[in-house]
Design a protein that fits this description.
Layout: E1 10-19, H1 22-41, E2 44-50, H2 55-61, H3 69-73, E3 78-83, H4 91-105, E4 110-116, E5 134-140, E6 144-153, E7 161-167, H5 170-186, E8 191-196, H6 204-216, E9 223-228, H7 229-238, E10 245-248, H8 250-263, E11 271-275, E12 283-287, H9 304-316, H10 320-336, H11 349-363
Parallel strand pairs: 1-2, 1-3, 3-12, 5-10, 8-9, 8-10
Antiparallel strand pairs: 4-5, 4-11, 6-7, 11-12
The structure holds 1,4-dihydronicotinamide adenine dinucleotide and magnesium ion.
Residues 22, 83-85, 91, 95, 99, 267-268, 286, 289-295, 301-302, 305, 340, 342 line the site of 1,4-dihydronicotinamide adenine dinucleotide.
Length: 364
């Protein structure tokens, strides 16, 4: 027990679900950084409990989440997630076995994905300077293209018919739209770009447009524009400085946020928050990348996205100052050149983790 435990003001119970591949490596790193943040602050204390729900346990037991798993998670203040997926389990089984049920049963209907160019890193875009790319993508996280509606008929016949039905509800669209406007309103530029494909998809996407025009009336101080998703990829690449907050459907924002991460330097830096804004259920924090089987076990995964996700968790728990300090420490480390290979450096996961912990010792 740390010597200053008697000074502790806030105790947070965090469930960790490392999952597969580099998910395990970066979760371990994030827990160390969070422990260091807590001990350096002297006012925060984390109690971690680890849940070994992974493709390995699935192959042994036949399930990812045990029957009482979700109920157990409800006793925590937040969930920290690594990544799920391994080549010996089909990806739709792992995604629908672990990550999507977590998001759905914990009512995490918002997914927040910030991106910016961290100090000491650079964009693959030739003319893009730090500050030119500073976005928050708000992704609808509960319905749309990932609703799971559909089925397969004539599967064995050689002429299979499959349907994949998107579900868009007025309630679902309105709540994500309001969250996006409120996010934009809190940021200095107060600017929101709404993305759909309402020219070709004339029902659900048109409902998005309709709700957007209604909700917009309540936020007259937010400057808005509207893009089709294909044109959006062009604008993100050629004019990144023209955007700030972006709202899009589950599928579109999934794709755009990977692009955003790549444009800001690497998928290895990008964080995400799965939020239940009502706070009735714990929210869940995870880097946007997957389990990266190609580099798993090599000790070279970039832990920055995991640390940034941890900072977002700390912020959601109400510790703004500690979250800012952690972000500052991460950027001091990237600025100093301690970076993994994906960012053009040669440091290991361990070296980046130690460097961030060292900065944290000096931060308070
Ligand atoms: P991925 O994000 O795991 O990897 C894509 C590429 O980026 C790979 O070359 C990988 O080495 C690199 N990369 C990813 N994270 C990195 C990091 N932190 N540091 C350095 N390089 C990094 O996506 P991929 O390959 O499409 O999927 C692999 C598995 O992960 C699949 O089973 C997939 O279903 C699963 N997945 C899970 C997600 C989640 O749990 N949230 C999200 C995306 C994929
Ligand atoms: Mg994705």
């Amino acid at each position: 027990m740390p010597s200053h435990i008697h000074d502790v003001q806030e105790i947070y119970k965090i469930a960790t679900i490392p999952g597969d591949g580099i998910g395990v490596e970066i979760t371990e790193a994030a827990v160390r950084v969070l422990q260091k943040l807590a001990s350096s602050s002297g006012t925060i204390h984390f109690e971690f409990e680890n849940f070994d729900w992974s493709s390995k346990t699935y192959l042994k037991k036949g399930y990812y989440i045990p029957p009482d798993g979700i109920d157990k998670l409800k006793n925590f203040d937040a969930v920290y997630f690594g990544a799920v997926g391994w080549p010996n389990v089909p990806d739709h089984i792992s995604l629908w076995g672990l990550m999507l049920p977590l998001r759905n049963s914990l009512q995490q209907y918002v997914n927040v994905r910030p991106t910016r160019i961290l100090r000491g890193t650079s964009s693959p875009l030739r003319n893009c300077k730090p500050g030119d790319l500073d976005w928050v993508i708000i992704r609808e996280n509960s319905e749309g293209e990932y609703s799971g509606h559909g089925g397969t008929t004539h599967a064995a016949s050689g002429s299979a018919v499959a349907t994949e039905v998107s579900i868009f509800t007025q309630v679902g669209i309105e709540r994500i739209m309001r969250f996006a406007f409120e996010t934009a309103q809190k940021r200095p530029r107060k600017k929101l770009t709404m993305v759909t494909k309402s020219n070709a998809q004339r029902h659900g996407m048109v409902l998005w447009d309709t709700v957007y025009h209604e909700v917009k009336k309540d936020y007259p101080d937010v400057e808005t524009d509207k893009m089709l998703v294909d044109a959006m990829t062009v604008r993100m690449t050629l004019h990144p400085e023209t955007m700030d907050t972006i709202v899009a459907t589950n599928l579109h924002a999934d794709i755009l946020s990977d692009l955003a991460a790549a444009l800001s330097g690497s998928i290895g830096i990008a964080p995400s928050s799965n939020l239940d804004p009502t706070r009735r259920n714990p929210s869940m924090f995870e880097p946007i990348h997957g389990s990266a089987p190609d580099i798993a076990g090599k000790g070279i995964a970039n832990p920055v996205g995991a640390f940034w996700s941890a900072a977002e968790m700390v912020r959601w728990l109400g510790q703004e100052d500690a979250a800012d300090k952690l972000m500052e420490c991460i950027e001091k480390v990237t600025e100093s050149g301690t970076k993994t290979k994906d960012l053009g450096g040669s440091s290991t996961t361990e070296q980046v983790t130690v460097a961030v912990c060292n900065e944290l010792e000096k931060a308070f």
